Amino acid sequence: MQSKYFSDAEMRCKCGCGANRMDDAFMARLDSLREMANRPLSVSSGYRCENHPEEKKKDGSTTGAHLQGKAADLLVSGQDATRIIAYAHALGFTGIGVKQNGPMAGRFIHVDCASNEKNQPRPHLWSY
Question: Contacts from 84-87 at CB under 8 Å and sequence distance 24+?
């Protein structure tokens, strides 16, 4: 993993395995997002392995942008969140998830560079 702004440690899987298979092209785009924001961005979730609880699906499959190393959840809220969404769209992120309700510490913007999936064309915007 190569990045100007994000450490290997903050992008590692948090299930306990410590794996980090972040995609270099995704990380370059995430660095560009950080530069546009002109401020540090805290990552709550980067890479997730197939054993991470958030990656396990009801049908037993394990697919997702985090598992591919092409996603990050950024701890931002309020006006910063609005700006991050606009910058992410301008930079060509293909997935943007918005969680801006509940306690401030749990608010985030998900950004990813996943490709089209069955029943989910990209670009895609959703809320949690």
Answer: 84/33, 84/37, 84/41, 84/109, 84/111, 85/109, 87/33, 87/36, 87/37
- Could you tell me the pTM of the whole model? 0.91
Q: Where are the domains of the chain?
A: 9-48+64-115
Structure-derived torsion over alpha carbons of residues 87, 90, 92, 96, reported in degrees to the nearest 10: 50
- pLDDT tens track for 44-60: 999 999 888 777 665 55
Assigned CATH topology for domain 9-48+64-115 = Muramoyl-pentapeptide Carboxypeptidase; domain 2 (3.30.1380)
Q: What is the pLDDT of residues 4-25, one digit of tens each?
A: 999 999 999 999 999 999 999 9
